[in-house]
Amino acid sequence: MNVLFGRTNENSIRLLNLAGYDVLTPRDQGCCGALHAHGGNLSAARAAARANLDAFSREALDAIIINAAGCGSTLKEYAQLLPEDPRAAAFSAKVKDLSEFLVESASHATLNFQLSTQRVTFHDACHLAHAQRITHAPRVLVKAVAGDNYVEMPESDVCCGSAGSYNLTEPEMAERLQVRKVENILRSGATCIVTTNPGCLLQMRAGLDKTGASHVETIHLADYLARALRPVGQE
């Protein structure tokens, strides 16, 4: 996220700040270990988890917010990765997806959005919908901006083919899923598709570009919400 989606991280912090929260970003945090775990290298995943437990234990935190569904899924599984470490369960209990946190805390109600006229749909990242069981919260936030211009996409929770490192290890199957996802995006009639995971964004963007559908925008939820914020002082 910090390499390819640095602006998304900035917008996530901006949303949280405007909702009334102080945001700390421990400098010595590292990879969550998701890609290691996806590839079956659990020893490396556990090493990454221990490093993050060390980094975050030095701060007094009420919540640990993540804006990448694949990472969030693994962060919530630290207790399974490190059952012998008493810090792991406490850490995982604090992990919240950005959408989950804003809606559960009702913080989104303090954010002042301008309604969009763009026809918008939402793609359920597998690691958010299936691993974390979060589907309602991101839709609440998208609809707060899109209003009646929100439309559900057919098979919104079917994998786009990214699937962590799956698109690298099983490219043929990943491409078939990509084609299926693009067909469903176009069938929805939306000109903007919002999601919550970087791999999904890259996979769908590549698929749309292959079909010449450059008119359809792909955007992370945090970026979608941030650009809809009304300027301070404007009602």
Describe this structure in words.
With 235 residues, the protein is mostly helical. The protein folds into 2 domains: 6-103, no CATH class; 112-227, Rossmann fold. 50% of the residues lie in helices and 7% in strands. The chain has 13 helices and 5 strands. The strands form 2 sheets. The protein has a 3-stranded parallel β-sheet with strand order 3-4-5, with helices on both faces. Strands 1-2 form a two-stranded parallel ribbon. The longest helix has 18 residues, at 171-188. It is globular, with a radius of gyration of 18 Å. The mean pLDDT is 93.
Q: Provide the helix percentage.
A: 40-55%
CATH architecture of the largest domain, by name, is 3-Layer(aba) Sandwich
Q: Tell me the distance between the termini.
A: 32 Å
According to DSSP, the number of beta strands is 5
The helix count comes to: 13
Number of self-contained structural domains: 2
Keyword list:
235 residues; mainly alpha; Rossmann fold; two-stranded parallel sheet; 13 helices; 5 strands; 7% strand; globular
Summarize this entry quickly.
The protein is mainly alpha-helical and 235 residues long.
Task: Present the secondary structure layout.
Layout: H1 6-18, H2 34-38, H3 42-57, E1 64-66, H4 69-75, H5 78-81, H6 86-94, E2 95-97, H7 98-104, E3 120-122, H8 126-129, H9 136-146, H10 166-169, H11 171-188, E4 192-195, H12 198-210, E5 217-220, H13 221-227
Parallel strand pairs: 1-2, 3-4, 4-5
